[in-house]
Design goal:
Blueprint lengths: L1 H31 L11 E5 L8 H6 L4 E8 L3 E2 L3 H10 L3 E7 L6 H11 L10 E4 L12 H19 L4 E4 L1 H7 L1 H4 L3 E5 L14 E8 L8 E6 L2
Parallel strand pairs: 1-2, 2-4, 4-5, 5-6, 6-7, 7-8
Antiparallel strand pairs: 1-9, 2-3, 8-9
Helix pairs in contact: 4-5
């Protein structure tokens, strides 16, 4: 009798485990194939960089991308080697395009701006430049105050905006915003990030939202970073 109960429990546990695995698999598939509805967010697009490999831009356009933000530069020295190619091919496919700079709070703002303007040409047809802000200045090799972080970032923004002829977007990661509170200090449109759920960590409305950072696609080597615009 005891042996029979033990077998019954084992079978029940196995069935529950199988159901959990199946449920997890369905959830994983749904996440990697989910994008916000077009009825709520008509304009949708992608963020693309060299790590995505070769991009089938025409197919990406056909599947619903209206715009593309393309990684261009980072810090004071790094440049995305695929930027020029991606920019040209995305435009040829009919997408609106913008550039992304990954800002480093440990590097002077003017040096980072000089790096950006070498990579990205002045072009009034481009979307506003996005300045990606992640991490914090707490790990800088030289101690950097909050006032210095804000001042250097403003130097960068002013120089890039003079070059591009329009205001930038602040692509605020939740970690950077939690530490430095830039959304309240600098009046620029915001690009926020949170998979599946609309982000609210900046305390004011966003303009762009990375809604799925791991969208499955046959058009790039890796997962897509899928972005939507507020109507």
């Amino acid at each position: 009798m005891a042996a029979r109960r033990s077998k019954t429990r084992a079978r029940l546990a196995g069935a529950l485990l199988l159901l959990a695995l199946l449920g997890g698999g369905v959830g994983w598939w749904q996440f990697h194939h989910w994008t916000p509805g077009r009825d709520s967010f008509p304009l949708q697009g992608v963020e693309i960089g060299a790590e995505d490999g070769a991009v089938d831009w025409k197919a990406l356009k056909a599947t619903g991308a209206d715009f593309a933000y393309i990684d261009a530069s980072a810090s004071a020295f790094a440049r995305d080697p695929a930027f020029s190619r991606n920019l040209k091919e995305a435009r040829a496919a009919g997408l609106k395009v913008g550039a992304v700079h990954r800002y480093d709070p440990c590097q002077p703002g003017d040096r980072q701006a000089a790096n950006f303007v070498v990579v990205v040409p002045r072009d009034e047809a481009m979307l506003p430049t996005a300045v990606e802000l992640h991490g914090s200045a707490d790990d800088c090799p030289v101690a950097t105050s909050d006032a210095e972080v804000e001042s250097e970032l403003m130097t960068f923004l002013n120089q890039v905006e003079t070059h591009m002829g329009k205001h930038t977007l602040l692509k605020l990661g939740p970690d950077f915003e939690a530490r430095h509170h830039m959304a309240a200090k600098i009046e620029r449109n915001l690009w926020l990030e949170r998979d599946l759920l609309q982000p609210d960590y900046a305390g004011r409305p966003w303009t762009l939202w990375t809604a799925n950072s791991g969208l499955a696609s046959d058009h790039v080597a890796d997962r897509l970073r899928w972005v939507v615009a507020r109507p």
